[in-house]
Structure to design on (180 residues):
């Protein structure tokens, strides 16, 4: 009887500690996503200023401006992290094209407002990269926890689901091509 009670107590403690560990890891992933969201919001807010500055010099680049606007709108319409990751990756790609277009206008490159916006965007992109890396590390740890035995039992019982990595799609890994 004592052995049975000890086994039950040990199983209960394992369940308690295992569950709490999974909750901590899940909350860590969600916190890391919130940090990415802060940086993405900053980038999102910088885009209209950057577009308007470039528009003043590159009036015939309407296609690029439309793509930036479309990609920016996709971000606001994303309903879950997977859609948001896709939309943000597309936005990053068209921002690269916008910067490439701007680089071809010497008077724009010398414009103080443009330089400041470009520097802020670059700083934001670096912050996004750092927070994305941190998020992906936390997702990797969380995924390992919900897939490893014996915590996978608890993960299945309490419905802990995998979180997506924030990664670039294959087409986004290619160099940006700008056509005039």
């Amino acid at each position: 009887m004592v052995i049975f009670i000890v086994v039950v107590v040990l199983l209960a403690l394992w369940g308690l500690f295992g569950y709490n560990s999974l909750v901590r890891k899940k909350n860590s992933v969600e916190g890391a996503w919130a940090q990415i969201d802060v940086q993405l919001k900053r980038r999102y807010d910088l885009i209209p200023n950057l577009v308007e500055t470039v528009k003043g010099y590159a009036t015939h680049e309407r296609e690029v401006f439309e793509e930036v606007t479309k990609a920016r709108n996709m971000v606001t319409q994303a309903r879950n992290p997977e859609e948001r990751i896709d939309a943000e990756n597309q936005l990053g790609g068209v921002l690269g094209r916008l910067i490439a277009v701007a680089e071809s206008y010497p008077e724009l490159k010398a414009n103080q407002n443009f330089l400041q916006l470009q520097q802020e965007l670059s700083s934001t992109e670096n912050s996004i990269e750092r927070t994305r890396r941190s998020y992906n590390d936390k997702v990797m740890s969380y995924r390992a926890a919900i897939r490893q035995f014996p915590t996978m039992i608890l993960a299945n019982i309490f419905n802990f689901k995998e979180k997506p990595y924030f990664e670039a799609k294959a087409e986004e890994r290619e160099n940006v091509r700008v056509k005039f």
Notes: Residues 2-173 form a domain with the de novo design (two linked rop proteins) fold (CATH 1.20.1440.20). Helices lie at 2-57, 62-77, 81-103, 106-109, 112-147, 151-157. The chain has one domain: 2-173.
